[in-house]
Amino acid sequence: MKLSIATVGLAHPFEVGYDDAENLLNQTAKTLEEAGVICENVGVIMHDLDTVKQAAAVLKTKDVDLLMICIATWSEDHHLLDLLSYIDKPVILRAYPARETGSLCCAHQIGAVFTDIGKTYEFVYGDADSRESAEETKKIATAYSLKTVMSRTRVGAIGGRVKGMTEIAYDEFAIKQKLGARVVNIDEKEMTEKVNAMTDAEAEKLLEEKKAILAPCKISSSKEAMLESIKYYSAMKALAEEYDLEALSVKCYTTYMGKICLGYSLLSEEGIVGSCEGDVTNALTMKLMYELSGKPINNTDLLYLDESENSILFAHCGSSGFSIAEGEIDLCPVRLAETGVCTKFLVKPGKVTAVNICGHGDTFRLSAMVGDAIPCGMEFPGNPVKIKFEKSIFDINKEIMANGIGHHWMVAYGDYMEELKYFCKINNILMYEI
Q1: CA nearest 289: which of 321, 327, 261?
Q2: Confidence (pLDDT) at 2
């Protein structure tokens, strides 16, 4: 995911610090670049209508998600009102420590004006070369870039949802309003027709093409199951290309149980996420976390509390990406049905964020918790991950029940709590930090 931001200066020629405004602007942009943010430095210090128009003309040529106003001195606040009349972008007000420039009080002044006109904004304070301020900006930029990405995301709902899981019934209006994504409803026949149209010879050829990723795996499933599973992979990939999808959700339980798991694992390595049991909302949760982490997401249920080490076991049947595996990968029949091909393996240890999104309308809510994935055995046949928390696991369990949080948790490598907070804030999503 590309993090893009534009910087423009604001200063008053009469104020102390005006002569240093360009240096502040350039140093701020440089520090952001060093922190990994693509910074489009407009190079203009706004101080009258002509410079505002000059800045606006440059900004119209930039494809950025966020605008940072680098406030070098106290300035007349109407310059920003004029700028926003030409190009209305989300704004960060950036102030700098100094006694005589009036940078901070100007930021406060503009913040009051923005509040009264209903313009939301973010605020960052610190020296131009402050890495801490740059990292804070990066987290804000991540949330806004994520909003852009999600607004262009299309998720395929193949066959609807599993019966008996009313909790995962998806609200297309809330999904569009809160996440920006669009649900593409697809009849499961479109998938099965593609499966049936593919010959065994074509499936054999496709398996050979996937040899590099499949060869190191142990194969416990039958040849017939492997051929069938690769056909489902091909069908889902074809649907993703046909409908321009970046996320999939198949009503797998119980008809397609074990048939789509291998396909999900392969697709996840290609940047297309797939959620189990027709849970469309959590397919989008996977997409959200994939953009943050850049790695396959582990689709899990919360299963067991281990008091002895204050950990929680999360797991599902086995459809996660190969690149998060620790050790041997077993391509084997799915549990319970004992058919198909699952990718069964233990996952890598490390810092992780577990996220659930559920709800409808005003109850649409995101819940997140951060912990450490620790070594564990195959305590549940699939892709089990045992997460150790600092907070009491029993308190965590009580919070989940008290707030009506669902049972599907998408686990991503890394700590993204702050980015998720910003994302929920700007999208008006209720958030529970567990």
Answers
A1: 321
A2: 87
